[in-house]
Amino acid sequence: MTAPAILEPIIEFLGHVTTPQAWIERALREQEILLLDHRVLEYKAAQSALSLLGRHINRPELTAKMSRLVREELVHFEQVTRLIKKRGIALKGLSASRYAAGLRTLVRPQEPHKLIDILIVGAFIEARSCERFAALVPHLDAELAKFYAGLLESEGRHYQGYIELARLYAEGEDVEARIAEIRAEENRLISTPDEQFRFHSGVPV
């Protein structure tokens, strides 16, 4: 699929709320932080998928998708690490952004609702990552632009996989209504002022 074809359903899933121009401008000025945070996010994506796999080891559809996702996210983690080292950036820890934590406050504590919510949150994180890669590509140097463009397809698959699982395990719940509820918070986090710059942060202040 071409980038526009991949992006179209993702933009729709995100409620047509796209990355603010101010965030793109800040990202271009702070590429070191962008890459360091991206590296951590790839690791956390693998960690989250592995955790889901472990908690739902007897759901074959979920374990198949999560096993593949873990492997792909760890490859991306290694690729970002190599880019960081190549550019002479020192590895260091960064505080987490408000984004994922904000979305997870909506996760209900009881099953099966908890699983459905975690899967939907995962879909939004992957979809937003894909949308941000696409927003950045036209502005980056050739090496980083090629890398981020290459991530678009896999991140698009990840978002779709999460949503497919949410619908599969819905058990009569209105998944589309739940998506809409979580989308509202996702859009708020992306569109409102944010004092901290990270890969998934909101409008820089």
From TrEMBL:
It comes from the Bacteria. It comes from Atopomonas hussainii. This is tRNA-(Ms[2]io[6]A)-hydroxylase. One of its GO terms (molecular function) is tRNA 2-(methylsulfanyl)-N(6)-isopentenyladenosine(37) hydroxylase activity. InterPro entries: Ferritin-like, Ferritin-like_SF, tRNA-Hydrxlase_MiaE. GO terms for biological process: tRNA modification.
